[in-house]
Write a structure and sequence with these properties.
heterodimer, A: 761 residues, alpha+beta, Aldehyde Oxidoreductase, domain 4, 6-stranded mixed beta sheet, globular, B: 285 residues, Uridine Diphospho-n-acetylenolpyruvylglucosamine Reductase, domain 3, 5-stranded antiparallel beta sheet, 4-stranded antiparallel beta sheet, binds flavin-adenine dinucleotide
Chain lengths: 761, 285
C-alpha cells in the first residue's frame, strides 16, 4: 500500500480548477446551521455573570436568590467545576479561565452562570447573584507588567528556569539564534536600533461563540458547537468535567470565522456543567461584548530591533527583544514571535529574546500566524530604515539577504526549497511598483513567514453503490476546504468532482483530529484523503480481480477505472468505479478506504506584500489605494479559495495596521467591546486586493501543498507602516497607525523641523 | 413593557403625560432598540409615533420645510426640493448609518437622542432649524440647539415630544455643508464634525454665517466667534485661519476611546475650514 508522502510530480486533471464550493448555496441562502442554530427539546438558556473588575478577590458568592427565582434550573460557580485535572497546570488554567476560582483576573472573567427557561429569567437571575469583591491593583500594559513592583497577576507563576522564590509576571524567556551578534554589530558599517509597540487586536469573527450542550444522568453527553477543532474541544471538556472521552460526542457546526479564536474552549465546559446540573439541554450564545472581553484576542507587544549592515547591504548582525503579553495565563506567544522574527533572512549572526508576560487582560489565543505580524512589523520597519540609511532599494536589500534552500533559519532548522526570493522577484516585476505616486502618497512593502503545521489526521472514503463518494474528515472547514478536499479525492480516484461529497464528521465517527490551525486543513486532511483513496483503490482492484477472476497484480487503476493489464486479458473491458461499486454488495460488501496519520512535512511559507497609501496630512487619515499579495502556496488546489485566504488575511492586517485596538481605561476595563468602537474595516475601507499565487511545491506532500491561510496576515502591518512612513516622511512605530497617532507624529516632526530651522537660522 | 402606537399627536401626548415609570418615544428605533437590546434601558412604556399621519411627510410651506418626526432620513435624500435648498442638511442626514438604518432613522430621533456626535444636528443648527414640540400645554417652537441638554438628556418636559423639524427657505445666495471625521469610511460615529451655513452679499462677501461643531462638547455647539471670523470676508486665507482658531477655541472635548482632546480640537478646525469652503462655493462664491 502506498502511503508515501513524498511529492509525486503529476499533471493534475481537477486539482487547480475553480469549482463551486459545496457549502456555498446553503451559506448564501441561510440554510447553513451555525453555532446558534441548533435546538433541543426542553432546552434552557445559559448565561454567564462576568467580573466588572480587572483584578479582584472574590470573597463570597451568594447564589441563593437566583436559585430561588422561578424558572431558574441551575446556577453554577467554580464550586461546580472541581479540579479533576490531576495536577496538569495547563488544563487547570483552561478551567480557571472558563470560571474564576477565587480571583477575577480580568474584566469579563466568568464568575458564575445560570440556566433558566428563557432569556428574561436568566438575565434576572444574573442580577440576583451577589458577589463580594475585594478589588486588587491591576496591570494591563506589557512593559509596566515587567517592572519591579508591578501587581502580580498569578502568584504561583515563576519564570521558567528562573528564581523559584520570586513572584513575577514573566512566565518564560526564550532565546533563538546563532553566531555572535555583538561581533556582527562591531563589524557593521551602519547599526540601526528602534523600538516599536503594537496594541491588542481581536480576530473579529462575525459569529459569536455558541453551543448547545446536553449531559444526561447516565454520564453521556453531546455538544453542538462552533469550533475550529471539535476533537480538541471534546478532549478538553471531557477532561475538565471528569467525563469519559468516548461518552461525549461533539459535532462542529458551520463556522462563521475563527482565525484561531475558536481553537480553545471558553464557555463550552460551563454549558456542559449547567446542563449536567439542570439535567436539561442548555444553549449558550455569547454576546459581542462577551466575545471581546472574555475570549482570546492576540497579544499587545513591545519590541526592540537592532540591525547592523555593511555598506554593500549585507546584514552582519540582527537582534530582536520581544515582550508579548499573554493575558492572565502563561502562554507561548512571545516565543513564537521570537521564532518567526528573522525567518525570512539568511543571517550569520542573529538573536531573538522573547518575554512571555502576564497582565490583567483576557487569555490570549491564536490569531492567524499568531505572534508573527507584530515581530514582522518591528523587523520589516527596521529593514526599510536600514535600506534607507545605506541608500539601497528596499526590495534589493531584502533580496540580497533573503533566505534560500540550505539557509539555517534563525529558529533552528535548515530550509528546503522555499519561496521568499521568488516572492521578492515578483514584487520587483509587479505592475503596482510602476504606478506613479502623487503628493501625500507613499508605497511600502514587507515580507512575512509562517511555519505551517501538520499533525494528527484521519479520513474515511466511502464509495456508494451508485459510484458517488463520501469523504469524511475531522478538520473543520474554515475557508472552503471541503471544496479542496473533494478535488483531491476526485483527483486521486479519477472521478468527477461532482460525484464527491465531503463531510466534517463528528467526534464519534473518526479517530482524533488535531484542530484546524497552523494552516493545516488542506495539507493534512488532503494527505489523509490521498492515502485513504489509495486504500480504497486497493479494494476496488481486488473487486475487479474477483469479478474477472484474475490475479490482483494484473489489475491497475487508471483514470477512475480498473484496467486488466497483459495480453492474456485483452478481452476484458475496463471496469469503472461506478460499475465496481454497483456490484459491491455481491463481491464482498461496501468499499471504503481509511487512513490515520501524523501528517509530517508541513512546508514553511513566505509572502511579500506591496501597499500604496494616501495620508491626509491635516487629519492623519489613511486610505489604502492599492494592495498586492504575493505568496507561495506550494500547490493551489482550489485557486479561488487560496486567493480568498490571501485577500482575507491582508484585509485583517489592514484593519489591524490602521484602526483596530483594545482600549483599556485606567480602571483596567475594556472600553470598546463592540464593533462600533473596535473598528474592523468595512468594505468601503478596502481597495481591491490583488493576488499572485506562486507554486513552489512542498516536497513533503504528495501534491506539493503548503498551508496558505495564515502567512499573508504577517506582512501588512509592516507594509502599511512603511507606506505610511514614506507618505508622511515620519517613521511610524506604534500600531495601529490610527489618525490621532499619525497626526501626532506629523506634528512632532513639523515642530522638530521648525526647531531645526530656528537653530539653523 | 407596554407598546402603544397612537394615530394622533394628542393621543401620543396623553399617553406620555400619564405614563408611570419610564416612557420613551419610538421613531426609527435605531438608537432606542439598540439601547433596549443592550440592556441599558428598560422602558415601561414605548410610544411609537410612526402611525401619526401628519408626522410622516415632508411638507413645503410658505416659510420653508416641515419635516415630520417620523420621516426616515432616506426620504429626505429623495426630496428634490429639500436637497436643492439644504444640501448640507440632507448630506448630514444621509450620512447616518447604512441603507438599512437610513430607511428607519429620523432627524428628530437623532436630535432627541442627544448625542454630541449626532450627524444631522450641526447641519440643522447651522441652517437655523427649529423643533416643533407638542406637549400637554400645547405646541411650542424652539431652535434645535435648545433641545439637547447634554449627552443623552433633553430639555423636553414630561409629556412632550418633537413633532417636526422646521427649516427656513434659504435666503438669497445661501450655501450649507457638513463634514465629519470618522476613522472608517462608513458605519462609524463622528470623532468630531462641523456644519457651516453662509449667506453671501455683493461681490462674494460673506454677509451672514453660522458655524456649529459636533462631538467637541457635551452638546453640539454653535460658535458665533467662528461666524464672526468670516463675516465680511471672501473666505481668504486669513479668514480661514481666524475661523480655524475660533473653532479650536470653542472646543471643550473629552479624551475617550474615540479620540483625544488634542485630535478632536485640531480636526474640528480642519473640518470647519473645509466645510466653509464647500458652503461658500455652494452659495455661489
Ligand atoms: C448601525 C447604526 C449606525 C448608525 N450610524 C449613525 C451615524 O452615522 N450618525 C449618527 O448620528 N447616528 C448614527 N446612528 C444612531 C441613530 O441611527 C441616529 O441617531 C438616528 O437618527 C436616530 O433616529 P431614530 O428615529 O432611529 O431614533 P429612535 O431610536 O427612535 O429614538 C432615539 C431617541 O430619541 C427619542 N425620540 C425619538 N423621536 C423623538 C421625538 N420625535 N420626540 C422626542 N423624543 C424622540 C427616543 O425616545 C430615543 O430616546 C446609528 C445607529 C445604528 C444602529
Amino acid at each position: 500500500m502506498s502511503h508515501d508522502a513524498s511529492l509525486t510530480n503529476r499533471n493534475f486533471k481537477v486539482v487547480g480548477t475553480r469549482v463551486p464550493r459545496p457549502d456555498g448555496v446553503d451559506k448564501v441562502t441561510g440554510r447553513a446551521r451555525y453555532g446558534a442554530d441548533a435546538t433541543a427539546p426542553g432546552q434552557l438558556v445559559g448565561m454567564i455573570l462576568r467580573s466588572p473588575h480587572a483584578h479582584a478577590l472574590i470573597r463570597s458568592i451568594d447564589t441563593s436568590k437566583a436559585e430561588a427565582l422561578p424558572g431558574v434550573k441551575a446556577v453554577i460557580t467554580s464550586a461546580d467545576l472541581p479540579d479533576k485535572v490531576n495536577g496538569r497546570r495547563d488544563l487547570l488554567d483552561i478551567l480557571e479561565n472558563c470560571m474564576a476560582r477565587g480571583r477575577a483576573l480580568y474584566d469579563g472573567h466568568a464568575v458564575a452562570a445560570v440556566a433558566a427557561i428563557d432569556a428574561e429569567t436568566a438575565k434576572q437571575a444574573l442580577k440576583l447573584i451577589k458577589i463580594d469583591y475585594k478589588v486588587l491593583p491591576h496591570v494591563t500594559d506589557v512593559d509596566e507588567a515587567m517592572q519591579e513592583g508591578a501587581p502580580i497577576v498569578q502568584p504561583w507563576v515563576r519564570t521558567a528556569g528562573g528564581d523559584p522564590n520570586k513572584e513575577t509576571n514573566v512566565s518564560q524567556i526564550s532565546e533563538f539564534g546563532h553566531g555572535d551578534v555583538e561581533a556582527g554589530f562591531a563589524e557593521a558599517d551602519v547599526v540601526i536600533e528602534r523600538s516599536y509597540k503594537t496594541e491588542q487586536t481581536h480576530q473579529g469573527y462575525i459569529e459569536p461563540h455558541a453551543c448547545l450542550a446536553s449531559v444526561g444522568p447516565d454520564g453521556q453527553g453531546e455538544l453542538w458547537v462552533t469550533t475550529q477543532g471539535h476533537y480538541t474541544f471534546r478532549n478538553q471538556c471531557a477532561e475538565l468535567l471528569g467525563m469519559e472521552i468516548a461518552k461525549l460526542k461533539v459535532t462542529s457546526s458551520e463556522i462563521g470565522g475563527g482565525f484561531g479564536g475558536k481553537t480553545h474552549v471558553w464557555m463550552e465546559p460551563v454549558a456542559l456543567a449547567l446542563s449536567r446540573k439542570a439535567n436539561r439541554p442548555v444553549k449558550l450564545v455569547m454576546t459581542r461584548d462577551e466575545v471581546f472581553r472574555a475570549t482570546g484576542p492576540t497579544c499587545s507587544t513591545s519590541i526592540d530591533v537592532k540591525i547592523g549592515v555593511k555598506r554593500d547591504g549585507r546584514i552582519t548582525g540582527a537582534k530582536a527583544v520581544l515582550r508579548y503579553q499573554d493575558g492572565a495565563f502563561p502562554g507561548i506567544w512571545g516565543m513564537l514571535g521570537a521564532m518567526t522574527s528573522w525567518a525570512c533572512y539568511d543571517l550569520p549572526n542573529v538573536k531573538s529574546i522573547a518575554y512571555d508576560v502576564l497582565v490583567n487582560r483576557p487569555k490570549v489565543a491564536a490569531y492567524r500566524a499568531p505572534s508573527a505580524p507584530m515581530a514582522a512589523f518591528a523587523v520589516e520597519s527596521t529593514m526599510d530604515i536600514v535600506a534607507g540609511a545605506i541608500g539601497m532599494d528596499p526590495v534589493d536589500f531584502r533580496l540580497l539577504n533573503a533566505a534560500k534552500e540550505g539557509t539555517r533559519a534563525s529558529y533552528g532548522p535548515t530550509y528546503g526549497p522555499i519561496g521568499i526570493r521568488a516572492t521578492l522577484e515578483a514584487v520587483k516585476n509587479h505592475p503596482q511598483m510602476k504606478v506613479k505616486l502623487k503628493p501625500n502618497q507613499g508605497r511600502g512593502m514587507a515580507c512575512g513567514f509562517w511555519f505551517n503545521f501538520g499533525g494528527q489526521t484521519c479520513a474515511t472514503v466511502n464509495i456508494g453503490v451508485d459510484g458517488t463518494i463520501n469523504v469524511s474528515v475531522g478538520t473543520v472547514d474554515v475557508g472552503g476546504s471541503r471544496a479542496s478536499l473533494s478535488l483531491i479525492a476526485a483527483e486521486e480516484l479519477g472521478v468527477p468532482y461532482e460525484t464527491v461529497k465531503c463531510t466534517i464528521a463528528d467526534t464519534a465517527s473518526l479517530g482524533h483530529n488535531d484542530t484546524t490551525e497552523g494552516s493545516r486543513g488542506t495539507f493534512s486532511s488532503g494527505m489523509a484523503i490521498i492515502f485513504a483513496c489509495r486504500n480504497a483503490i486497493e479494494e476496488l482492484r481486488n473487486r475487479a480481480a474477483k469479478t474477472w477472476d484474475i490475479p490482483v497484480q494484473d489489475v491497475h487503476w487508471q483514470d477512475g477505472q480498473a484496467v486488466a493489464l497483459g495480453i492474456q486479458h485483452s478481452n476484458l473491458q475496463p471496469l469503472t468505479l461506478a460499475q465496481i461499486a454497483a456490484k459491491s454488495p455481491r463481491t464482498g460488501g461496501p468499499i471504503a478506504g481509511h487512513n490515520e496519520v501524523v501528517a509530517d512535512g508541513a512546508g514553511v511559507s513566505f509572502a511579500s506584500h506591496i501597499c500604496d497609501v494616501e495620508v491626509d496630512p491635516e487629519t492623519g487619515a489613511t486610505r489604502v489605494l492599492r494592495y498586492a499579495v504575493i505568496q507561495d502556496a506550494g500547490r493551489a488546489i482550489h485557486p479561488d479559495y487560496v486567493e480568498g485566504q490571501f485577500q482575507g488575511a491582508a484585509a485583517q492586517g489592514i484593519g489591524w495596521a490602521l484602526n483596530e485596538e483594545y482600549i483599556y481605561g485606567k480602571d483596567g476595563r475594556l472600553q470598546n467591546p463592540g464593533f462600533l468602537d473596535y473598528r474592523i474595516p468595512v468594505c468601503s475601507d478596502l481597495p481591491f486586493i490583488d493576488t499572485q499565487i506562486l507554486e513552489i511545491p512542498n516536497p513533503g506532500h504528495p501534491y506539493g501543498i503548503r498551508g496558505v491561510g495564515e502567512t499573508s496576515i504577517v506582512p501588512p502591518l509592516a507594509a502599511i507602516g512603511n507606506a505610511v512612513s514614506n507618505a508622511v516622511g515620519v517613521r511610524l512605530t506604534h500600531v495601529p497607525m490610527s489618525p490621532p497617532r499619525i497626526l501626532k507624529a506629523i506634528k512632532a516632526e513639523r515642530s522638530l523641523a521648525g526647531d531645526r530651522r530656528v537653530s539653523a537660522g | 413593557m407596554r407598546y402603544e402606537a397612537p394615530t394622533s399627536t394628542k393621543d401620543a401626548v396623553t399617553l406620555l403625560s400619564r405614563a408611570k415609570g419610564s416612557a420613551f418615544v419610538l421613531a426609527g428605533g435605531s438608537d432606542l432598540l439598540v439601547r433596549m437590546k443592550g440592556g441599558f434601558i428598560e422602558p415601561d412604556l414605548v410610544v411609537d409615533i410612526k402611525r401619526i399621519p401628519a408626522l410622516q411627510e415632508i411638507r413645503k410651506t410658505s416659510t420653508g420645510f416641515r419635516i415630520g418626526a417620523a420621516v426616515p432620513c432616506a426620504a429626505m435624500g429623495e426630496h428634490a426640493g429639500l436637497r436643492k435648498a439644504w444640501p448640507g442638511v440632507v448630506e448630514a442626514a444621509n450620512l447616518i448609518g447604512s441603507d438599512q438604518i437610513q430607511s428607519r432613522c429620523t432627524v428628530a430621533g437623532n436630535l432627541c437622542n442627544a448625542s454630541p456626535a449626532a450627524d444631522s444636528v450641526p447641519a440643522l443648527v447651522a441652517a437655523k432649524a427649529k423643533a416643533v414640540i407638542a406637549g400637554p400645554k400645547g405646541r411650542r417652537t424652539v431652535p434645535v440647539e435648545k433641545v439637547p441638554a447634554g449627552p443623552g438628556r433633553t430639555t423636553l418636559g414630561k409629556g412632550e415630544f418633537v413633532e417636526a423639524i422646521l427649516l427656513p427657505l434659504p435666503k438669497g445666495k445661501t450655501g450649507d455643508a457638513y463634514l465629519r471625521f470618522t476613522p472608517r469610511t462608513e458605519m462609524d460615529i463622528a470623532v468630531c464634525s462641523a456644519g457651516v451655513c453662509l449667506k453671501l452679499g455683493r461681490g462674494g462677501v460673506i454677509e451672514e454665517a453660522r458655524v456649529a461643531l459636533g462631538a467637541v462638547a457635551p452638546t453640539v455647539v454653535l460658535v458665533p466667534a467662528a461666524a464672526k471670523a468670516i463675516v465680511g470676508t471672501k473666505l481668504d486665507e486669513a479668514a480661514l485661519a481666524a475661523l480655524t482658531a475660533a473653532c479650536e477655541a470653542a472646543c471643550a472635548p473629552i479624551d475617550d476611546k474615540r479620540g483625544t482632546v488634542e485630535f478632536r480640537t485640531e480636526v474640528a478646525g480642519v473640518l470647519a475650514r473645509r466645510a466653509a469652503k464647500i458652503a461658500y462655493q455652494r452659495a455661489g462664491g
